[in-house]
Design goal:
With 192 residues, this protein is an all-alpha fold. The protein contains ten helices and no strands. The structure holds 2'-deoxyguanosine-5'-diphosphate and fe (iii) ion (FE) (2 copies).
């Protein structure tokens, strides 16, 4: 699928604000891919499509998660805010004919992260957080880190997200902790 086609597809499925967010994630992901040696086309496409299932009703999201044996069903034991990510990947595969596993995985894990994130996983996870339309406390620090160190920026995003969830007395999906542990161990090994 070409990027223009993806843009038209999400324009029809998302409200204006979410559409603009998706275009922002696509552009930011493309820039991060250029900077860190990723596949720019895949990054733009995954960024454009990442929130495609954001406005599907919860019962439909849950039905897809139950139907697809390759989606961990523990997603259903955690916040419904997580569900659009894996279901977006299923939609991209089944309805849009996207077969590239890297793109589908980056979409699946764009909200939670996962242990041993790939370069494309990290790019989409980070672009979702720092695209120009985002405005929340701490985002500029993460943007700054993203200019020089991808792993450090993803680490900071995970740390802030986990802290935010804890402060609000919310549960944290286990893979988010796995992603956090994996990255901080890696960072500590490199820097001592
Ligand atoms: O879809 P977006 O709003 O662009 O961004 P997202 O997919 O990253 O965010 C969805 C929400 O999910 C966000 O407010 C944080 C929340 N969330 C709830 N539980 C968890 C979680 N995020 C992570 N990483 N891990 C959780 O366990
Ligand atoms: Fe999302
Ligand atoms: Fe998003």
């Amino acid at each position: 699928m070409k990027i223009d086609e993806a843009e038209e597809t999400i324009r029809a499925l998302l409200p204006e604000k979410r559409f603009r967010h998706s275009v922002g994630v696509s552009e930011t992901a493309g820039r991060l891919a250029e900077k860190y040696g990723g596949d720019v086309k895949k990054a733009r496409l995954a960024g454009m499509l990442h929130d495609i299932a954001k406005y599907f009703p919860d019962d439909q999201l849950a039905a897809v998660i139950r139907r697809r044996r390759d989606i961990p069903d523990n997603f259903l034991e955690f916040s419904d805010k997580l569900w659009h990510a894996p279901v977006g990947a299923v939609y991209a595969e089944e309805k849009l004919g996207i077969t590239d596993r890297e793109i589908l995985d980056a979409m699946t894990f764009h909200t939670t992260g996962r242990k041993k994130m790939t370069l494309l996983d990290k790019i989409i996870f980070l672009a979702d957080y720092i695209e120009p339309g985002r405005d929340f406390p701490g985002v500029d620090e993460v943007r700054k880190a993203a200019e020089s160190d991808l792993d450090e920026a993803v680490y900071q995003e995970l740390q802030r997200t986990i802290m935010h969830l804890l402060e609000k007395r919310k549960s944290v999906y286990p893979e988010t902790f796995e992603a956090y542990n994996n990255l901080i161990n890696q960072i500590n090994e490199v820097t001592g």
